[in-house]
Specification:
Two copies of one chain form a homodimer.
Chain A: H1 7-19, H2 26-37, H3 44-54, H4 60-72, E1 77-79, E2 87-89, E3 95-100, E4 106-110, H5 113-121, E5 127-140
Parallel strand pairs in A: 3-5
Antiparallel strand pairs in A: 1-2, 3-4
The structure holds a DNA duplex.
DNA sequence: TTGAGATTTTGAATCATTCTAAACGAGTAA
DNA sequence: TTACTCGTTTAGAATGATTCAAAATCTCAA
């Protein structure tokens, strides 16, 4: 079952929403809770189904809305791979993603600050970056499967 | 108007198709020609409309087919940004993409080999990469607009 | 407690992409 | 030449994730 948000988690949610002038709603709390509970980069549909267990009346559109709101206030990142359904990730530390083609799973890859710095340096001077997305695609060589 | 393929370009097309056991067709030549003629990362629809000028009967499905074929034989790369239409890019040198939010345009950014090397090093040992996608999103600070 | 404005809900609409089945075409064997 | 085979193209239908619209409901500041 899905744990409630702890004090710190609830605070960052409320803070982030307040900062961008949005309201706290049960739906938003639950969707955020679902994201934190299982950090496996779920799709909207997966979030929806997990959230339904706690709030049976919840609608899919609301999940879309909530997630969009979270992305808007920087609480959550979108993960896009090819044309697949968008996935969502509450890991705010700079990181890349590795998508395992055999399982479809997405793994977070910690991203050293130096590399990020170097990356921004390859841009022409007048290019101002807002977001950088780095995604690997490949396979994991079994044995110690992650 | 769209130039024909030069000798070298036609050769790489034929070679790539032959290597993966596929046929040379007028449609494929035209679609490839369109891609080389204007390297602005067109969407399928844009490619389709440009190609129609040369081959009025061409169908959209065929453009999808051709582009998929090219990606399959490594002649062309897909460029995905968020949920937008897939764009296509005949630049085979390793490079990243910068998407200008104000214009929607996508710019190629040359990618130094060292950075690529460093990037593959941050992966766990058993992760085998097939493709890496690096995309920046932001704005260009006018003045010397590119 | 109230009212304004934000949010949620349902179901319809959109739109890029994929699928299907029939027609076509190039190359090969007879 | 003719027939055959297979990959390709075509048109249109189908799919599926996402967005939209309008009405109902809720949140929060006053």
């Amino acid at each position: 079952m899905i744990q409630n948000l702890n004090k710190h988690e609830r605070e960052s949610l409320h803070e982030a929403l307040a900062k961008s002038g949005q309201k706290i709603t049960p739906q938003r709390e639950i969707v955020y809770t679902v994201l934190l509970a299982q950090r496996d980069h779920p799709t909207v549909d997966e979030v929806y189904n997990r959230a339904l267990e706690t709030m049976p009346g919840l609608s899919l559109a609301t999940v879309y809305n909530c997630l969009e709101t979270f992305v808007g206030c920087g609480l959550v990142r979108q993960v896009n791979h090819e044309r697949e359904s968008t996935r969502y990730c509450p890991n705010l530390a700079p990181h890349a993603h590795f998508r395992d083609e055999s399982t479809g799973r997405v793994h977070d890859i910690e991203l050293p600050k130096e590399i990020l710095d170097q990356l921004t340096k390859i841009l022409p001077a007048n290019f101002e970056t807002e977001t950088i997305e780095i995604s690997f695609q490949g396979r994991t060589k079994s044995s110690t499967q992650n």
